[in-house]
Amino acid sequence: MSSDLDFLISPFERAEYLQSMLLSHSTGGVASNDDYQVVRQELISNPNYSELVPRWLKTTRNLDQFWQFIKNKFSTYAERRQFLYDELNPLLEFLETKQTLPAAKSIDEILSKFDSDGIHFAWQKALERKTQDPAGAITISRSILESVCKNILHGLNVDFNETNIELSELYKLTANELNLSPDQHTEKVFKQILGGCSGIVNGLGTLRNKHGDAHGAGPSSYKAKPRHAELAVNLAGTMAIFLIQTYEATKT
Questions:
Q1: Number of C-alpha atoms within 13 angstroms, CB side, residue 126?
Q2: Treating both helix axes as pointing N-terminal to C-terminal, what angle do 226-250 and 188-211 enclose, rounded to 10 degrees?
């Protein structure tokens, strides 16, 4: 049996639906307890906006518990409605204005189709962690590119050392197989663009080594900021799309 949730894709739509369920349930209407539990869990488990989730929503694990909370707090429907609007507005405003950019949506679509070893899952985790855990997001960004390169090389039946290879070497091997190496082209503009791609990948490897969470940090280590993670995640996603689309073009 389908649920209303099947047609609600974005976090904003699902949070707005949760508000509608709570408004209905607190004013004599009907709401789906299953849907409530699903959306509630999504909201409180996402580190990007879990702090905007009201405390009472975190503690009311089902609609029966919510009803006990709201009926004892306010006696009139008007008070309950105003309370829910006020309490959930910060979360809804954040989700409405901070939705994923179109470029990120296209990356998400392509990775979800290409995924064979958790690449799409890694992309989603990187997006979730880039604000609250920049170092972790940077490490995941490198993993995304590693996985894409390895999957492409497997698809091309190319042998390589899977257990001991730097990202720069992995990308260089992949680029050569896809005719993306600068020295495979004579046109100056293409050599510049492809050289820039190689530089991005090398930079991501260096950024991860310096600011990721894969290595122990010394007391004077520079701490990664959300802007560093934003850069790493977006660069990794863009490069992953470029490699995947080039690989797909070789099969046609």
A1: 31
A2: 130
For residue 158, the surrounding DSSP H or E stretch is none
Same structural domain, 79 and 134: no
- Asked if residue 146 and residue 210 are part of one domain, the reply reads yes
Residue scoring higher pLDDT (252 or 49): 49
Q: What value, to the nearest 5°, has the Cα angle with vertex 112 and ends 36 and 234?
A: 95
Grouping H, G, I as helix, E, B as strand and the rest as coil, residue 53 is: coil
Decide: helix, strand or coil at residue 147: helix
pTM of the model: 0.53
State pLDDT tens for residues 144-194: 888 889 889 988 999 998 878 888 899 999 999 999 888 888 888 878 888
Clarify whether residues 26 and 87 are in a common domain: yes
Q: Are residues 41 and 159 in the same domain?
A: no
In total, how many domains does the chain have? 2
Domain that residue 159 falls in: 102-250
| Residue after which a domain boundary falls, among 70, 97, 124 | 97
- Interatomic CA distance for residues 245 and 82, integer angstroms: 49
Give helix then strand counts, H and E, for the chain. Answer: 11, 0
Q: For helices 188-211 and 134-155, what crossing angle results, to 10°?
A: 130
The three state secondary structure string of 72-123 is HHCCCHHHHHHHHHHHHHHHHHHHHHCCCCHHHHHHHHHHHHHCCCCHHHHH
Residue 100 has pLDDT above 50, yes or no: no
Q: Do 153 and 240 belong to one domain?
A: yes
CA 249 remoteness from chain centre = 26
Burial of 161 (0-12, 13-18, 19+ CB in 10 A): exposed
**Radius of gyration for the alpha carbons in the chain, expressed in angstroms and rounded:** 23
Place of tokens 């820039």: 196
